Amino acid sequence: MKKVIFEITENSPLAAGVYRLRLAGDTSGVTAPGQFVNIALPGLYLRRPISVCDAEPGLLTLVYKVVGHGTEAMAAMGRGERLDVLTGLGNGFDTALAGDSPLLLGGGIGAAPLYWLARTLRAAGKRVCAVLGFNTEGDIFYEDEFRALGCDVTVATADGSYGAHGFVTNALPDDYSFTYACGPEPMLRAVCDRAAGDGQLSFEARMGCGFGACMGCTRETVNGPKRVCRDGPVFRKGEILWAS
Amino acid sequence: MGELSVTLCGVELSNPVIPASGTFGYGYEFAEYYDINCLGTFSFKGTTREPRFGNPQPRIAECGAGLLNAVGLQNPGVEAVIAEELPKLAKVFCKPVMANVSGFSLEDYAYTCARLDGQPQVGWLEVNISCPNVHGGGMSFGTDPAAAASVVRAVKAVTKKPVIVKLTPNVTDVVSVARACEDAGADGISLINTLLGMRIDLKRKRPLLANGTGGLSGPAVFPVAVRMVYQVYEAVSVPIVGVGGVRSAEDVIEMMLAGATAVEVGAANLVDPYACRDIIAALPAVMERYGIENLRDMIGGAHG
Ligand SMILES: Cc1cc2nc3c(=O)[nH]c(=O)nc-3n(C[C@H](O)[C@H](O)[C@H](O)COP(=O)(O)OP(=O)(O)OC[C@H]3O[C@@H](n4cnc5c(N)ncnc54)[C@H](O)[C@@H]3O)c2cc1C
Ligand SMILES: Cc1cc2nc3c(=O)[nH]c(=O)nc-3n(C[C@H](O)[C@H](O)[C@H](O)COP(=O)(O)O)c2cc1C
Ligand code: FES
Which residue's C-alpha comes closest to atom 14 of ligand 2? Predict the structure, then answer.
């Protein structure tokens, strides 16, 4: 974890209510795809957790969806403005588990953290299949970016307005070595039920601190209570317990 | 440079700044961010006799100048704290730690305090009496002077360490509870715990927290805490630990002027893990600005 002041170099719309934020500054605290950052916003008491969509030395890319006061305030910020950010939070995905042909499943804004994961897996020579699910055509982002990495990309929309009709679990390929998923909890649950073999899933929780101090984000797991912010947000399929 | 040290129940603190219980875990994880030996001490996560998972999600809600929490005293239980958490802490913290204890019956409090009394790392017991009394119809121990005093007596009987009683602000007359605790033998009083609150989700039209209510803390509660510390200072002679909404060196001094010997910082640690380190670092310059040579001289300074 590192506290860093970043400068906004880009904050541009990608899809309906979805923006890409690029931040220049010290990225040395960010060590694995699937980690997140926690952003202080003027006038709001708690920070806002956002996953790292991509990271390279000195440059962080985040993709966020406007859903409330905090993300609205983010959308109103412009180039040159500064943000106080805690970086490198959470465990991230373990790329060593991927096997030869990993499957990446992203639901809505949950596709964002899979981008850096896909780039890392492609750089390691893996055959990457990405299935990205959205509600409707206007919500789609990063289809071309995933394709440009050399991933085999399928887009599904719940209303059938683009690509495959239905959820990501309706568009699973036949053969894959390991599953990585990020998205809303009902999707993660369906993925756990429907995707074959082992996998890692990235969860969300309401957070107080984002770095392990408050126990605000705890969920029960097979291995006892775990903090989504510090022991997660990525959990192994076999660890997960679902609230009934 | 001004003198920052204070003495809390006979134990010297290099400065009065103490991370508050529930916002600093068992301390060692913060040692990854800075050398926590710069702290006066810290109060560890509220510990109970048995392990507790706490409340369902969501447990956190934001408000204008603070947050509500309904963590529900999640902790691994006193045996795991002794076997696992304290040894990890010993590697990174060489000062006495404040052990925060919760319970749901007098036996719980006595048992947990007796176990922690045997730990050389523990400098003080901070007894949180905001919890519901399962034998008292679920009413909080801290809302009734007689029930509060009974907890103090039960704890004092099993420990030689200083006992600091942490009071709830959710009462009409905090002074009578403080007096009852002092009369029952408390060595110090800390206040305030969180104020009971609620937020409602407009989308679901239901309370935001799964627990319904939660405890309010953060800058919003600072004036309430200052007022209560001020009132209790007039009524008791044991030292007071001021807690609630502190986020700056100025706030620390204000709390001391109200009557606090030491000052706990809670929610501020959650929005900035370096908050306590930075407050301590800022104290000398703020003292100089206000012509303060010795911080001890500020304790209760606002009283005529
Ligand atoms: C580990 C993690 C990674 C995330 N990554 C992304 C991402 O890459 N892109 C993205 O758009 N969103 C992401 N989110 C969700 C994002 O944090 C929330 O959408 C955002 O905090 C909403 O803030 P707001 O002020 O706009 O909404 P409000 O509803 O006004 O927020 C009020 C409070 O609720 C919290 N909150 C609201 N929705 C959520 C949620 N879904 N999860 C957790 N807390 C919430 C806020 O943080 C704040 O404390 C992530 C959440 C987590 C926990
Ligand atoms: C997430 C959270 C957990 C807390 N847990 C405890 C606890 O276990 N025991 C306790 O005595 N107080 C607990 N508190 C209360 C704080 O120690 C403190 O009294 C209160 O938050 C007011 O201070 P603040 O405004 O600086 O946060 C908790 C507070 C928060 C925010
Ligand atoms: S959000 Fe504070 S412990 Fe996870």
Answer: B22
